[in-house]
Amino acid sequence: MSDGENDKQQTELVPYSIGYGRLPSEHRFQKGRSGNPNGRPKRPKVKKKEFDPILRPTDSLILEEAYRPVTIREGDKTIELPAIQASVRALAIAAMKGSRLSQKQLSDIVRSVEEKRHTEQLQLLETMIEYKQKMDRRVGAAAAFSDYGTRSCSPARRYISRPTPRHGRNRRPGG
């Protein structure tokens, strides 16, 4: 066979030249069929967190930051304390150095905390007085009714245990 016949045979088998950018027809994209059958994966849907005012996310964030431990240096020592305590300490130091704004803020903070404690103590005292008056009325009513009634109004009575018998007299049968 001559070289001309080989070339002729090859051109009969392949109707066009094959090379870079010229794929055989069986390997080309077919009509009606996608080149990417699965397609690009869809992004996962991120659910937006619904705002729930009951949870108070801002309050929890503020408290988390306020009680976050920070390290401060005092002289040669390093101390770890909550951020809120460190800021109050810094405010007190600035007030002692003579900053009028810091002095006013510190005195306002101390005054409000003292007032809050005072009102809480007054509420507790009022509650205790109401409880005592209520119990005195119950004791008086029970004493007028019978002797047994005075024992039932003791608030801690149910927590007091009775002594167990030492002898075999008051034992349950089979025990």
From TrEMBL:
It comes from Sphingorhabdus pulchriflava. It comes from the Bacteria. Residues 1-10 have a biased composition (Basic and acidic residues). InterPro entries: DUF5681. Residues 1-51, 148-175 are annotated as: Disordered. Coiled coil: none annotated. Signal peptide: none annotated. Residues 164-175 have a biased composition (Basic residues). Residues 26-111 form the DUF5681 domain. This is DUF5681 domain-containing protein.
